[in-house]
């Protein structure tokens, strides 16, 4: 094909796309190029910043082509609540990596009746485990969390030096082992080779399966060596992980004294009951078993761990805000260690957690939804199969909703009466039908880890570090770059 024909073809595709936009009243947005759409203009290291710029230019409903996927960016919190509450937006975006790897199993990538059934199941499991407001089950959950928190504090104490250390490995082990306990009923020694491999696999997966990665939108790239290797490693890692899960499942089935307070046990019971009652597993299949366990463990560990890492980094970088939390705890608790009962009387701590979740949205692009039918948003037509992006970064850094949005100010979450404020533009766990199913559990874990760590330590930047990076690296989640912190026991300080 001649250069002239290539140029002519591209022009015709552009004209067709522009005409189609007018015909179907698609949202305003950049035109992009044939085949690749707007991908060439995306900042590969910080796609959330590029997309946020588009929402500032085109408004709260912005449409663009990202490779083969038509995408709509939403950046108005009220609109997002309205849209994501509708069933027509409860699908998942047709991303090649997630669909190609997960194949619709699990919970995160599931759709339709499978998703509805499994979401009900997981919500019920979490409540039975103790994700409730009060009662004996919550008390038991609190004890399980605190056992890991205590281990974490001992490790931080033993490992901290005047020059500081990066707490990532310690935190990953402890938060991950808590999820291991809740999901599998199994915990690992920190240096166990299988556990070290699983942690490394999770870290790599978070980096490679970014929502804005080109392989998600241009599946033909898998035939190129660079992307083909990434795809192979991800799929191979998944299969090896499933083999580990199968061994844990077999251990559970063969042990009459196995821990039954786990997601694994609950799923296994459902499988057994369905076979006995109707000889039909329904959605409780072996493949769903593996993918669901992976989803709950992975999502629970990654988002909670990342938020905790950002929290410790920000309170170290802003010691005056850390001191406010310490003063609040001393005033209302004296030397008593904080418990979940104290959440209501520690609004300063809760406000600081919220401000960390705002200023460093763990999932800055949000978890994309997909339209399961032709539908509308306001006056605009939204085709079936559209990727809907509730752009958290745009909302959480918008000066229309937040004064000085790029500044770290926990006070913005303190109401006039001193209680915890809940601004409408704050969406850390998203909203709607696919809101994070474990949001309350995440809040419990974050509170107990942050409260107990600050109760025991003053956290600081090492004296030999002149500056610290607060921008982070973006994959699926926005994670802190490697850094060092000093954990000084409070009992060695004067009050």
UniProtKB/TrEMBL annotation:
Q: Which UniProt keywords apply?
A: Iron, Metal-binding, Monooxygenase, Oxidoreductase
Q: Which InterPro entries match?
A: Cyt_P450 (IPR001128), Cyt_P450_E_grp-I (IPR002401), Cyt_P450_sf (IPR036396), Cytochrome_P450_fam2 (IPR050182)
Q: Does the keyword Oxidoreductase apply?
A: yes
Q: Which Pfam families match?
A: p450
- Assigned protein family: Belongs to the cytochrome P450 family.
What's this protein's name? Cytochrome P450 306a1
Protein's gene:
LOC107068862
